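Q: Here's a chain of 381 amino acids. Please give me its 3D structure as tokens.
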Amino acid sequence: MSGALKHDDGPNWAAWPTRSADDPAFTVGVEEEVMLLSPLHWNLEQAADELLPRLDPEMREQVCPETHAASVEIETGVHRTVAGAREDLRAVRDSVAGTARPLDLAIASAGTHPFTTWRETAVGRGERQEELYGSMRELARREPTFALHVHVALPDAESAMAVFNRMRVHLPMLLALSANSPFWQGRDTGLASARTPLFQAFPRVGIPRRFDRYGEWVAAVDMLVACDAFPDASYLWWDVRLQPRFGTIEIRIMDAQIDLDSTASLVALVQCLVRMEHEEAWAEDASHAPQEVWEENRFIAARDGHEARLIVATDGQRVPLDERLSTLLPHLRPHAQDLGCADELAGVERLLEGTGAARQRKLALGPERLPGLVRELSERF
């Protein structure tokens, strides 16, 4: 098989790039999936094909179609600091929103649209979208979900694999802090992140297992690619995945955020966690815990958000999210100072007071109920 694992150095797609002084380790890139809306009734508008060609040419490489026609993904470039990534995101958000207005469209960001249904959902047009529909069938037409993805560069494949294993420990905490999708099909689900179980309908999702070395991960993925189970490693929709072509680890578990302050705080938290795990191996012991621990923590985080009490794998106790974060922050602050994101990291404590899910529930109490909530989300974009 042409794509089979090579005995000595692996397949070409698995080559890890050599970092340079212009692209050092721990740089960040951010991706936000955002929703397209009709300001008339604040429902989703299947209008990606109308919006994308009208973007300023310099922005077109930073705004991409998504699986669903009512969604686009906005991307930053590579940045040494979270502040740089934030300003990049602001510029792209402004450009997308400005392009949308003459088309009678609005833009907003949250983990789900509060009242859309699958009947109102269309799969986007494009080769990848058609391939996804061919593979997923009607699962691809479930209500769209919207995530925040953060890439952090690492110096080599083996250190990336080690950080991948340890970051699995932190994923439920990141989900709990980012939870921003309490509503689904017009109902309050009782969950802080309804996006999490909705996205679970896709294959190759969730917290992946531990891999002892990079070659083991490459062999597992390449076997599936070589037998045409899926085209490439980008079809792994795990909550954390390696991206060899970029030389990054990508954290994918978080809900899209309402505003840039929340996004920047979560990006800083991810960047600091990756650097801490690379240099201190803080979660190495916990990363060997049974997979069932992380799956249960993931459910607890999706259900309870900032009020989650997560299982500590090393002693079997459950601790409140704020207690877990207070244990971590002293280890993270020196890394934040070195990375230049101390101010953004400080904003994480604001999320403990109430995530996007809590804010959405308050906004939905207004006289316009869920349409009013979506209007507010758009205004805060």
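Q: Can you summarize the key feature?
A: Residues 157-178 form the longest helix (22 residues).
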